[in-house]
Write a structure and sequence with these properties.
Elements: H1 2-17, E1 23-29, E2 38-43, H2 44-50, H3 56-68
Antiparallel strand pairs: 1-2
């Protein structure tokens, strides 16, 4: 099973990296309750967008989403 998860994760990350952005944080995570693993990634582009003058509304929406889903 570990080999299957590694292959799927490799494919998922390769697809993610095809968009040309540079990522500084990537992870594969699971709840440990038998659910399918998920990937998470943060890019320099998105970080810069969040902290730009126009990123205020995006930060506000992200904060609301975090509160709703935690």
């Amino acid at each position: 099973m570990a080999a299957e998860i590694a292959n799927v994760a490799r494919t998922s990350f390769r697809t993610l990296f095809e968009n040309g952005q540079r990522y500084y944080y990537c992870t594969l995570f699971t709840t440990g309750e038998g659910h399918a693993p998920s990937i998470s990634a943060s890019s320099f582009h998105f970080r810069d967008l969040l902290y730009s003058p126009m990123g205020f509304m995006l930060r506000k929406k992200c904060a609301i989403a975090i509160v709703l889903f935690t």
